[in-house]
Design goal:
Largest sheet: 5 strands, mixed
Radius of gyration: 37 Å
Amino acid sequence: MAANDDRRARVKQVLEKRGLSQQASAGDASLSWLRDRFIARARALFYARMTFLTLGLLILAVPVWRVYFGFTPLAFGMYFFMLLYSVANYLTLAHPKYGSPITYVTLLIDLVVMVIVVAKPMTGGGLANPLLASQLLFTTLFALLFPKPLAILPPLLALPIVTRIDQLLNRTPTAIEILTLLWYLALNFIIIYVLVYLNQRETSAHTEVIELQQDLKDLAVVEERNRLAREIHDGLGASLSSLIIQSEYLTSLAKDEVLLKEIGEIKASAEESIEELRRSLRMMREDFDLGHGVEDYVKTFGERTQLPVKFEKSGEYIGKMSPESSLAMFRVLQELLTNALKHAKAKQVDVRLSFLPERVQLSVKDDGEGFDPETKRPGHYGLINLQERANKVGASVNVDAKPGAGVHVTFSVPLTE
């Protein structure tokens, strides 16, 4: 038991760390995975920036390199600005709302700095600048972090922008430079295609794994439910059947009327219990027919209690209610019929089961004494139990009751996908 408690605590801790609850859906898990993947890749971007900033510091420190690239004293201010926003971006990566936008904006600033450095007056022009090859890295980073068409567009625009700057500076591209431009464009499209394709495959594979895990969990629940149903049927069901047989045997031996009446009540209780057991076992199965089960119970209840109960059913049952929801609706029906008989002293009860496109609705109306829902009645927990059952399965409940005007209760359960 202690080991299980420790395991549950560890699972809860991991889920809380990932921002999930123990009832998190597959969609929540996928969103968490996508966020974690983005943070991991964005951290890689930070380390790449640090590498480039280290190289940039070397260029600024060596006079020959600084002159070759045409860096002015303003370059030192730009360098520290880049260092500042890189660190700020790293510190905000995990923020669920601002982490992604800040990363995108800072990556755009990096791209602008790259274009400025590449387009600076140099021998051979911007297209001949060896730093132009870093544009491929920007395409890779944009495709990894923001794999959407519009998001990847900025690094692709960097090449025609550099070409246009060359023209504005009266630098006519040579045939080799045009070939270099076409070569870079081809490499860009290859990088984008490969990375977007791999991203989609990775996302699809992860989604499939999440769905398979959910299917396995559902299958385990169904198997455990079926196992419990078999155990209850073979154990408790057999005991109740023996009690009924023994009651019949005692009836044949007893002569006293009072004793016969008591034995008859015991037998009736055992028969009612075994019928309730069978009904509960049927509801534990995935193929439980709610409409037939409700109709059968209403008929049996009316015959046993001699209370006129009218039943109506509308719509078609499409079988999308979970066993828990079916059981909750059935328990509500049992409680409402029992209340109508014992407390409301009703003479007529109308039960309506409606199968709607998005929900299943149970309506129970009696012509009994009624009551005031606003008045607190110590020792009476029917309304509280009703609301608790509704909350547990995500249902809605409406109670329309007035003293002397009967009670009308509507219990509505939404269908699952």
